[in-house]
Amino acid sequence: MENNSNVRRFTGTAIMVLVAVVAFFMSIGLSVQVAQAGPAMSHQEQARNTALESSHQEQAQNAAQARTQVQPQLYLWPIAGAKIGDNILFRPQQYVDGNLNFGNLIIGAPEGTPVVAPVDGVIHRPGVAVKWGTGMQTYHTDEDRTWNEQISSVVAEGGYGVPDRCVSMTLGIRTADGDKLWFSGLNGDMVLKDGQQIHRGDTLGYVAWYEPSVDEPHICFSMSGKNNAGKDPMTPFGLETTFIEPEALVIPDSLTAEQAQEDFRALMDVLYNEYPSLYDVVTPQEIARFDSLTVSRDLAKDLSYTEFWLILKRTVSLVHDSHIWIMTALNTSELNVANIFPGVIGDSLIVTRVMNGKGLEKYVGRRIAAIDGRPAEDIIEEVRTFKVDGYDGRSESLRDYRMSQGWNWYYDDRDVYSSSGKKEAVIEFADGEVYRDRWVSPRRATGFWPQPSLEMAHYSHLLRYKDCPYSFRMLNDSTVYFGLNAFDISKVDRDAVRDSIAAYLDVPYMVMDLRNNPGGDVFFTNELLSMFINAPTRDLGGYSWVKTRGPLRHSLNYTPDQIVFPDYEPVEGKEGYFAPSENSRVLYPDSAVNYRGRLYILTDETSCSAASLFPSVLVRNRRAVTVGRETQTCYHFMTAMKYNEVRLPNSKIVLHIPLVREVFDAAVTPRTPAGRGLMPDYPVPATYEEYFTAKEDFVLDRALELIAEGKYLGEDYFAEVDAAADKKDRPVPWLVLGIAAAVAAAAGIIAVTRRRR
Questions:
Q1: What's the CATH number for 88-237?
Q2: For FRET with 57, which of 12, 335, 440, 669 sits at 20 to 30 Å CA-CA?
Q3: Phi, psi at residue 472, to the nearest 5°?
Q4: Nearest to 48, CA basis, from 37, 60, 61, 35
Q5: In angstroms, rounded to a whole number, what is the distance separating the alpha carbons of residues 77 and 201?
Q6: Which residues contact 167 (CB under 8 A, 6 or more apart)?
Q7: Four-residue CA torsion sign, 74, 78, 82, 88
Q8: What mean pLDDT do residues 511-538 have?
Q9: Cα(696)–Cα(689) distance, integer angstroms
Q10: Burial code of 464-477, b = ≥16 C-beta within 10 A, e = fewer?
């Protein structure tokens, strides 16, 4: 959606006229004072002064007329009844919750105050808005319904990660000269439709909320021009502006060796000095060797933009954190597509799919020995190390899943990403057959075989929650199924989940499905945990750790001198800075709704963040078992919470780097090996059939088998760790957390800060 800020300044002529008028009136005042104080003038002097005064008056009238002709009418202030400039909370170039506010006016007013149109125009692209990081997600719903009805429908869907009050209406007004005025933070029982004529002073809606970090009702106003670039939102109201015109961002076609090395060094400096989990995925020796080889071998010559982007992709894949990614995408819309799609299942490189309708079905499932003369073993190792990204620590489940799906990784990058690539591959199968695959343009692609089908369990599960973010159903007389596809759900859905759990308290077995769950709100995670724990959870001494409090390097979202983590403190003998964790608190059972039956939780490579934390808390407290595969997020820690958006100086590529290491538990046991996700109590290995063809849900079937066999909690791998911890005092910052938890418990208060994960 087009959005954000700004309008035209006075022309140079208008400014000169204003200066002339001001100077003229100053000279009139001064001359009158001199005339009154000086000696008597002659008739000639009086006549001359009278003529000059008449001339001055005529000049003033002409100047006023010129000013009226040049200066456009000031916009009407959008807050009804307020004066222009009243209660501006944030101006362009100020920081809102640590993020640069490029071109928005955030204006406070009592909730429910009418918001009016500053100018005549046409309603443009109304919808429901949710502020998301530094951007905005817009939902376009049924325009025949009122603002409040549309907002309610989005709130009911949930999964948006902000307080319900910050789900609001957004709309634009397109003016006669092509500018667009954007408003967010509105509600009201009114209907305005795209293309509807609106007049200066008409009511657009009523003040609600928009920015989650702003603690009073407000609207957000911005402007854009004909080319959708941001414009100054202050000058049209006659306000002194703080808006800075953006410079045109020129993406280079190529970089010199010196430019590429400077950009690569900027990224590595951020990783070395700000990313706190670097040495959990690579050793210091490995990253130093990669750094040296990349500079001496890959960056020793001039590079195309694509070649340099691919080097950054290799770097990100080597570190492979799920919260590190390249925000600047590479255009691949015109690149060709293979007919044979390789993937790894187990330890073998096989054909997972083929282009449909070309008689290639016989190759599906066949093992590949080499591609373009490179042995399959070498290709697998390169893909595993330098091409798969997006998984945490040493977790293997998501890595293995992505290696089964990412066909393009098994070919030379120069063929996949370059329009001048040879677009052909020679595939040698394990039985000696050779196939020469001539690639086709995307326009001639005919789809996959085996073709994805909603009858396949892998895909039907993805769509199970399209109408509701949770699901309850009885699997048999003694087992209830509870599926949840996110921890960011609306208050209405949270209440419905609570009521549903209460209705099944007497069912002896529950299967809780957290697959395809990206996580979400910590407040709801803890609320839900309290319905399943039967005793207070252990204090595991969790903490937050950062490498630096700031300032940050090459940051788009923080100022060059900003201290990002002022509340974090050093600990003697330890690197970095520490703070109590918001995700590792002592929790207490819900006294009204508390399920006490046996709980089997389904997890796999798509269980992320809070969907990994939730089963980890229950497993750590001996309250559940997990069935399936390792979670995507590490058991012991995750790196998230706050981020540095790094723009490299020459290529202008932007990367997203997490800054906070959130430690949940430091106990390394056979049940919780170092660096891995939460491992399943009862593993279900991934197979080709599960990912590509099967209609059966193998993981759910295994859980039902375990229930039928009476299998539940096994060996307590944490008993020895817990016994040792109980015998000694915890060091700082663990001691601080223990005291805080004890005080909270004594007061009968569990303070949980709502935080998106």
A1: 2.70.70.10
A2: 12
A3: -125, 135
A4: 35
A5: 9
A6: 128, 129, 130, 151, 154, 155, 160
A7: negative
A8: 91
A9: 9
A10: ebeebbbebeebee
Q: Distances in Å between the alpha carbon of 182 and those of 127, 172, 428? A: 11, 4, 58
d(Cα 627, Cα 603) in Å, to the nearest integer?
A: 6
Between the CA atoms of 316, 259, 299 and 382, what dihedral angle is there, to the nearest 10 degrees? 20
Identify the pLDDT of residue 48.
34
Q: CA torsion 357→363→365→367, rounded to 10°?
A: -150
Domain 340-449 coded CATH 2.30.42? yes
Calculate helix-pair angle for 284-293, 305-319, nearest 10 degrees.
Answer: 170
Please identify which residue in the block is written with the tokens 């609570």: 498
User: Percentage helix, strand, coil, to 5, in the chain?
Assistant: 30, 25, 45
- pLDDT at position 132 is 64
pLDDT tens string 565-575: 988 999 999 99
List, in sequence order, every residue forming a beta bridge with 183; answer none if it has no partner. 171, 221
Longest dimension (CA), the chain: 121
Which residues touch 657 (CB under 8 Å, ≥6 apart)? Answer: 270, 271, 274, 275, 324, 643, 644, 645, 646
pLDDT-derived band of residue 193, with 50, 70 and 90 as boundaries? confident
Which helix H or strand E contains 738, and what residues bound it?
Answer: helix 734-747
CB atoms within 10 A of CB 135: 10
Name the residue ranges covered by the structural domains of the chain: 12-70, 88-237, 254-326, 340-449, 458-542+581-633+677-747
Distance of alpha carbon 546 from alpha carbon 570, whole angstroms: 10
Question: Which regions of 323-405 does DSSP assign to beta strands (E)?
Answer: 325-326, 340-345, 348-355, 368-371, 374-375
Q: What is the CA radius of gyration of the chain?
A: 32
How far apart are the C-alpha atoms of 736 and 175, rounded to whole Å?
58
The end-to-end CA distance of the chain, in Å, is 25
Q: What is the CATH number of domain 458-542+581-633+677-747?
A: 3.90.226.10
* Spatial distance between the Cα atoms of 483 and 513, rounded to a whole number of angstroms: 5
Task: Check residue 299 and give its pLDDT.
Answer: 95
> What DSSP assignment string belongs to 639-704?
EEEEEEEEE-TTT--EEEEEEEEEE------SSS-TT-BPPPSEE----HHHHHT--S-HHHHHHH
User: Looking at residue 557, what is its pLDDT?
Assistant: 73
Q: Is the pLDDT of residue 707 over 90?
A: yes
Q: Are 361 and 467 in contact (CB under 8 A)?
A: no
Give per-residue pLDDT as tens, 639-698.
988 889 898 999 989 899 999 999 988 889 999 999 899 999 999 999 999 988 999 999
For residue 730 the two structure tokens come to 């915890």
What is the chain's length?
A: 757
Handedness of CA 264, 265, 270, 272 (dihedral sign): positive
What's the pLDDT tens digit per position in 588-638?
999 999 999 999 999 999 998 889 999 999 999 999 999 999 999 889 998
Flag whether the pTM goes above 0.90.
no
> Which candidate, 452, 702, 454, places its Cα nearest to that of 601?
702
CA neighbours closer than 13 Å in the CB half-sphere of residue 507: 21
pLDDT at 332: 66
Tally of CB atoms within 10 A around 313: 18
Q: How far apart are CA 647 and CA 584, in angstroms?
A: 33
Give the DSSP letter string of 98-149.
TEE--S-EEEE--TT-EEE-SS-EEEEEEEEEEEETTEEEEE---TTS-HHH
CA angle 626, 631, 632 (to 5 degrees): 170
Question: Is residue 639 within 8 Å of residue 660, measured between CB atoms?
Answer: yes
CB contact at 8 A, 713 and 622: yes
Strands 340-345 and 348-355 come out as antiparallel
Q: What is the pLDDT of residues 540-596, one digit of tens each?
A: 888 999 999 989 988 877 778 888 898 899 999 999 999 988 666 789 999 999 999
